[in-house]
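Customer escalation, tier 2.

The customer says the design service returned an amino acid string that "doesn't look like it belongs to this structure." They asked us to rerun it and document both sides in this ticket. The original structure tokens are below, unchanged.
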């Protein structure tokens, strides 16, 4: 039995694609092992959204080359697409597989060990050619519904490495979900590059979600990161369904109208705030998380303070903070008034501290409010850990519980780990 190990960097879309590959290799009788263990094959699924992402990807490749010189080494994902020619010339990896051919990695590995001379490009392009994954690295089942983006924000390289927007046929999405629910998954997460723009014939994103909520089975549905493209009350009403979790990650990027225009975002800060307000009005306690980029070219101190002020008003459950990173080939690369790195770091620290403060306050608000927790793993004490419906981590202070089971928990306090985590005991099962 050959051994294979995976390392995934970046977004949930990468996680979905890695999970699908893990499942396929398991079906082919490969033993999936931890990336730090000895294996015959190593696969790195890379990210290139920032310079830091590139740096992390290079670190992993260097480590793989140094520790496992005789193993078969494959790099795929967005960095592999963006820097394909450079990576193919290096001696760090054996195969460079772009996003279009990621589904062919299983065939590529089998061809290699069969003594064939194979190249990733000889296989068919297929962005959605992943079978339903029944043996993955996660308790949740990620479902890819869309790929690519047509927005062309001035800072973003994703359209270059993921291509133009394309939606998976709705019938295939439904069938995928039916299969993973039959496998026993209790939480399904919809993912893609710009899922709000999903469109398959007459089925838009709202209709897709509504149809998924009507699929029989014991599961709940979570929506991953979305662009705030002006959703209306018709979409917001779906969160009244008990299966749809009260959490959205809406990408703000800046609270400054001027900066949003320079970024070429498809909404205004005012529209974003209206959407957030409507969600909170309809569903008190709704967990709204976001991304904020600091140090975008030309961002003044006044612009930055507008982001800070808006974040304080909206009280996000968490903010992913990014220092603007120059991406070659984007419009923002050529913009004047690039912000010094030291100033980006200062602004980033302010947003991160604000995020920590808001996150702690938001999570403490759930003390005494029951949560439906899906158990994912166990800590060193044997206590179960998982996430409630609001995507807040919870420790169940009891032993002997089962993984991948829903428990109704009453949080009675906070435990400080790397971040504040709710803790409590089961009240009903």
């Amino acid at each position: 039995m050959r051994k294979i190990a995976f390392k995934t960097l970046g977004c949930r879309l990468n996680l979905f694609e890695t999970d699908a590959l893990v499942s396929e290799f398991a079906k082919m009788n490969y033993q999936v092992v931890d990336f730090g263990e000895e294996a015959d094959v190593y696969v790195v699924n890379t990210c290139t959204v920032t310079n830091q992402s590139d740096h992390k990807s290079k670190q992993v490749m260097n480590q793989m080359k140094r520790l496992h010189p005789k193993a078969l080494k494959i790099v795929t994902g967005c960095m592999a697409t963006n820097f394909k020619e450079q990576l193919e010339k290096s001696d760090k990896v054996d195969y460079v597989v772009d996003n279009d051919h990621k589904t062919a990695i299983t065939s590529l590995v089998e061809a290699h060990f069969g003594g064939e001379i194979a190249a990733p490009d000889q296989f068919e392009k297929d962005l959605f050619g992943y079978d339903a994954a029944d043996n993955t690295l996660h308790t949740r089942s990620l479902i890819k519904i869309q790929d690519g983006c047509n927005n062309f924000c001035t800072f973003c390289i994703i359209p270059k490495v993921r291509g133009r927007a394309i939606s998976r046929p709705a019938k295939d999405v439904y069938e995928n979900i039916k299969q993973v629910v039959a496998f026993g998954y209790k939480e399904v997460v919809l993912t893609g590059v710009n899922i709000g723009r999903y469109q398959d014939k007459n089925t838009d994103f709202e209709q897709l979600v509504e149809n998924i909520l009507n699929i029989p089975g014991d599961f709940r549905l979570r929506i991953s990161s979305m662009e705030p493209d002006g959703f209306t009350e018709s979409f917001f009403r779906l969160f009244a369904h008990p299966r749809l979790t009260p959490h959205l990650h809406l990408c703000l990027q800046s609270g400054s109208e001027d900066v949003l225009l320079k970024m070429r975002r498809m909404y205004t800060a005012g529209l974003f705030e209206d959407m957030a307000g409507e969600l909170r009005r309809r569903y008190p306690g709704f967990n709204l998380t976001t991304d904020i980029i600091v140090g975008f070219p030309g961002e003044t101190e006044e612009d930055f303070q507008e982001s800070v002020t808006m974040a304080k008003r909206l009280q996000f459950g968490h903010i992913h903070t990014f220092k603007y990173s120059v991406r070659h080939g984007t419009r923002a690369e050529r913009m004047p008034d690039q912000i010094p790195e030291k100033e980006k770091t200062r602004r980033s620290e302010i947003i991160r501290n604000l995020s920590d403060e808001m996150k702690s306050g938001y999570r403490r608000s759930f003390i005494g409010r029951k949560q439906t927790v899906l158990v994912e793993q166990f800590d060193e004490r044997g206590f179960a850990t998982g996430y409630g419906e609001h995507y807040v981590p919870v420790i169940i202070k009891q032993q002997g519980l089962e993984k991948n089971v829903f428990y109704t928990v009453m949080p009675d306090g906070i435990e400080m780990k790397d971040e504040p985590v709710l803790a409590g005991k089961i009240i009903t099962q």
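Tier 2 assessment: The sequence is consistent with the input. DSSP finds 13 helices and 20 strands in the chain. The chain has a mean pLDDT of 94. Sent an explanation to the customer and offered a walkthrough call.
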